[in-house]
Structure of Two-component SAPR family response regulator:
Amino acid sequence: MRFFVSGIIAVIFLNILWIPPVHAQSYGLGFYSHEVVQDKRTTLNLGISNVSAKDNLEVSFDLSFIPNQQIYFGYMLRLVGDDKQNIDLVYDNQYNTKHFKIIIGEKLSKISFNIDDKELFDNWSKLKIFIDFKNDRLTVSAGKASYSEAGIHLKQSANYKLLFGANAYRQYQTTDLPPFKLRDVKIAQQDKLLSWWPLNEWQGDVVHEIVNQNNGTVTNPLWIKARHRNWQIEKEFSVKGDASLAFDPATETVYVIAADSLISYSVNKLTPLKSEAYKTGRQQLIPGDQALFHHDKLYYLFIDQKAIATYSIRDQHWDKTFKNMPQETNTGHLNKFFCTADSSVYTIGGYGQLIYKDSVQQYKVSTGTWQQVKTKGDVFTPRYMAGLGANAAGDTAYVIGGYGSASGQQIVNPRNLYDMMQFTVKTKTFKKLFNISIKSEDFVFANSLIINSKTKAYYGLIFPQHKFNSNLQLIKGSLDKPAYQLVGDTIPYLFHDARAYADVYYCPHSNKFLTVTLFKDKEQTRVKVYSLLSPPEPLDTPILSEAGINYILWIGGLLVVGLGITAAVVVYRRKNKARQQPPLPLPVTEVAVQHHPEQVEPLIELDHDNQVNNNKNAIFLFGDLQLFTPEGHEITKYFTPLLKELFLVILLYSVKLGRGVSSEKLNEILWFDKSEKSARNNRSVNIAKLKSLLDKMGHCHLSKDTGYWKIEIDYNQIMVDYHNYLNIVSNKNKLNKQKIIQLTHITQRGNFLSNIEYEWLDAFKSEVSNEIIDSYIQFAGSVQIADDAEFLIKLANDIFYFDPVNEDAMILKCKALSFLGKHSLAKNTFENFSKEYKVIYGEGFERDFHSILE
């Protein structure tokens, strides 16, 4: 009986094993085509050897075209057998009505066909090429249609090469190819699957084959799955003066409103960027004011003046022009939406003059009048930097998060908000739906939410507003409950309250998200447009290629079957003897993602507001740990927890002490619970993995030349903020304003390794905080308040960041504020300090306000 049950179990396992792996739909390989130079075009080289002499051979794959390209012409597949005969699939839309053609040898065959454009561009089409050697017939099927030709002298081969796109293989080389996407390439014979390349990698030039591990190669790949996870910068440009944004989802056009012209960026046009001067002359813009699009018109909101200027895109004409307006808005970072039910623009919240706003304003387009809306329902906390999205009709808006306070006053307990509020236009009612929870550091929202009423979901961009070098992160949440998840990777974002703005839009036809950032830099505004294909991949999805996972599951399945059968025998012979199977090790992989600021040795003075956001060749230890390759790819997230700690131990001992760390010290910190042999094996394996990751950096490698493990870094090529910090604080007698500014640029990212906690790291963290505070205080003591009061206030705030009850910083700030005549702010600084002091120490601060000013 036991043997019978065991046999059934084995059969079940075998059936499970041969169930084809399930794949997500967001995968495949895109081919760069005529839009790039020949050297940058995509080549996919697959092959199969030692094919048995059988009656037939079938090649199949899924195909789709990349839209919005100029030229669709060239070779898609060249199937070469024993270097003797080629069967080619080509596409030619130049003059013929049937664009897909088959070439055999040097002759066009009679097979030609079309695939409907909507199907070809919006979906995947299944193509099969069936080679019938026995009957000398070639059949091509596209969807439900089939096309055949016989008597073409097919030659049977033992070895086949599949050359997709461009290739440089012998006499078959070509650089002409259409821009297309490919996935699930399969070769079968007599209904038996010989090879299967899913093309579901995230990155790299290896194409995994999951039947016999017959891997192929690719050059210049455009991995589709990566485009659902990694934001890609589509356009970067600057405009003079201030700028504002609006978006038309119907034409998928981003409008950048500048003072003298309208710049438009269209996703689905061959020439996407266009600039048109206003026929009505210059339009004064106010930093912080906003705009929105509706029915071929742009509405620019002069919110403080209760005025709107309407721009006709067709006529290139403003209905009003304004001059001599204020240089800043009193209602920055407000939210707005258009309600078609009453043809009105609504604005909610905002910030200005140290006050957070909770008001709702309505502009009626028909009458050109403004009015303040009296709202009902739940309390809407005054705020700014919230996210807002409305349903298609615009009669229901959702507002989430932001930063504000219950009283509206900035001085009274401001904080991050995480509530989701629903505003109904008809009843003018706010309703609180729920609070979302934070998973790490505090964040606010970019201006818009993407609302999907059908699925009751929203997408929004979040970012930590307390950082200048911040990052935007897309999230997907529910309108019914507080659950949300991070999707896609991050986008670098320079945030400075009055000078920065970010928004997210959805392109319904191209099925992609757009993020647009603005940053005002002196007399110009820098504009960056990023795109991400939908649906976006969750950030916590493993970056291991799906082919790799399938391979592991495949082998794992075989092991499970083997163990199942073995277990059955063991159960039969020895009853219930226990068994264990060790887990399979997963390879470490890396993916190219984001860009961040570059700082290069030797240190130079940087303008905080103009710091270039171009992280390449950089290692950041202040704030979040981040490593960037020379290409600007971040590799940090592909460090396992153990690799991260190993890296930090070696790096800190290398940079701080210069000599590195011994193997014994590594064992003591990381493998104290293991035997000497086990620790040595673990160390060897992880050192090898770390070397592989550091090789991506260039000018940075792991060595043991001196007997100590040490990370050798060329600081002229790689910026390491910890090394720069040490250069500044090592000689406090030579501190000057330039070096202090450099130090604040380093620390503005956050505390030293702020999100990492190791017991051995505490000494490093404590030393860094003390050294920074001592440097700030020592420099402050060398400066007269009358000479630079504003800078000393900023310096005191920087000290509070590390020590909120630092007495020297409080006195410095109070004296500087009093010198500038800001006596109430000085008194508030003292009172806040005293409250914090009592909370921490359990007793009141001994001195009074007047004594510290003496």
Summary: The longest helix spans residues 546-574. The two ends are 96 Å apart (CA to CA).
